[in-house]
Design the sequence.
């Protein structure tokens, strides 16, 4: 019998849950080679522009495997709809039978992505964060900022967005939550004011350039997850003292690192996987003027871990209800 | 709002429907290059043995795209469960939103696979079918035989299965439906008695060999859909006068043709796509002693077409109910 849960049920079941430990553990197992994650399945559309990703896999010895489908259709807001949607499917490793459908509309993908940003900041951000910079004004731009609350008490935020209206809405929303938000005219102005920057756009051209990045800055680039998207000039990755990928193999063909590899500004030897750093933080040494870049393309193990945790939450509820 | 339909609802909605025209049209559009079908996503498991396939794509200008997940776990019958399971997901091409979940438990995959076998027989079988041969005794072995009812009135069936009990059950079931079924001791004995043969096993070693195939025989090999499975000796494909693939690109890495290409017994030039034959049947010329082989690996366009047809059936029901 397949269990089906709606977004509302999921939101209620996970209230107060912190997925960071589960997702950290997922990255570690992934980097240790204990996770099977085939290449991402992908459909890329024009008119209207959109992409659908299928991410799937399992942790060795687990009793389930997970298939996650997530879509971003960037004209949806014009129709009054969310860009993101999706669902997660949990299967039995013993029989292949579908156990659970999480109709999360992309919500769990948003969370596991924001959690990955939080993890990057926890391990890579400078000791003294002066202000948080955000390039982009969408759901992830907001969540990435809010999820930093366990990493830093800083509430100074500088934001840039292509669409000024959206930037002002971002400002209003985060101000209502207690943040102090300044809207900047250019991405460069964000970089000038911040030493922790998150890029969260579907841009296909670089938005930030090497000369704009101050020494001592950490950048988490989470917007570019296809071979077409790009937010950072590859020269930034060349300049970076620490260059982190969520998945070495995915970053060969997706995201900022793939562009820098293609441009020849970095070589694979420079890349450290996020799971390696979580497993052995002493692997990196962040000095004062260090520039670090973490390139997040989104790894199926994040989906596996969050879907598993959510299913467990429903199971526990079921037991309590008995 | 996502519509969710159970197997029972699907079975009721499609009663009496013939999917052959839709699936023929799908193969034609595929071979004309009007269908986007990325490489098959795959998880292959040991202990217990099983595989999960993700097939997905869309026909150009369609307003939906389809993702299908189908699993075969071959020890399930020991637990009293079906080997096959799965579901189909239909998404809006405009927004990426999930429109419909067909919880078909693999039933629609079974149908679209059986329909593909029927189409192969309709275009490739010898004019006078003497008897139907089946290698394998599972669901597909049964359905492949039954779906031939629109192609031939022949009800003489010869079957071989690894497990004699299952072969006897196959015999009993089809006899109850009016067929005259003989259980053979070897695959060779099936070939000796038949000029239309279907192979429908998850075998990893060849079960039929060149010298066993009589001139004038057509073989539809539908069991091997991964790079590991194989039912035919590659020498049969070398001997074949007509060699058909459901998908040229998939057959490079899956099924009988991939084995024969690797063994060097055939070259790609020899392969004709099924959709090309449906589109222009004059492309092939079946002479009396001709041996033909059709290698079916299962193409996402079949799933796209059957899912679309089922959704339309539900929509029409909805309208009638208004």
Sequence:
């Amino acid at each position: 019998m397949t269990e089906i849960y709606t977004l509302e049920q999921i939101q209620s079941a996970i209230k107060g849950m912190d997925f960071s430990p589960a997702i950290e553990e997922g990255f570690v197992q992934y980097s240790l080679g204990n996770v099977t994650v085939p290449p991402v399945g992908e459909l890329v559309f024009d008119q209207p522009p959109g992409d659908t990703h299928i991410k799937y896999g399992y942790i060795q010895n687990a009793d389930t495997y997970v298939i996650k489908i997530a879509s971003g259709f960037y004209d949806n807001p014009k129709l009054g709809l969310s860009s993101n949607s999706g669902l997660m499917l949990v299967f039995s490793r013993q029989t292949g039978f579908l156990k659970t459908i999480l109709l999360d509309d992309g919500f769990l993908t948003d969370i596991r992505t924001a959690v990955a940003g939080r993890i990057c900041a926890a391990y890579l951000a400078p000791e003294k964060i002066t202000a948080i910079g955000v390039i982009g004004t969408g759901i992830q731009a907001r969540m990435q900022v809010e999820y930093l609350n366990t990493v830093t008490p800083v509430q100074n935020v500088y934001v840039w967005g292509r669409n000024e209206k959206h930037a002002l809405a971002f400002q209003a929303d985060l101000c209502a939550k207690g943040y102090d938000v300044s809207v900047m005219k250019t991405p460069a102005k964000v970089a000038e004011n911040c030493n922790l920057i998150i890029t969260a756009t579907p841009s296909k051209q670089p938005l930030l350039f090497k000369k704009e990045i101050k020494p001592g800055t950490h950048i988490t680039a989470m917007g570019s997850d296809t071979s077409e998207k790009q937010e950072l000039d590859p020269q930034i990755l060349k300049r970076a003292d620490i260059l982190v990928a969520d998945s070495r193999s995915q970053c060969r063909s997706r995201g900022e690192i793939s562009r820098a590899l293609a441009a020849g500004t970095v070589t694979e030897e420079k890349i450290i996987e996020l799971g390696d750093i979580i497993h052995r933080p002493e692997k990196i040494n962040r000095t004062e003027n260090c520039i670090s870049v973490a390139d997040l393309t989104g790894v199926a193990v994040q989906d596996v871990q969050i879907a598993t945790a959510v299913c467990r939450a429903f199971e526990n509820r079921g037991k309590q209800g008995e």
Summary: Chain A has a mean pLDDT of 96. Chain A touches chain B through 37 residues (CB under 8 Å). Chain A has two domains: 3-108+301-321, 123-299.
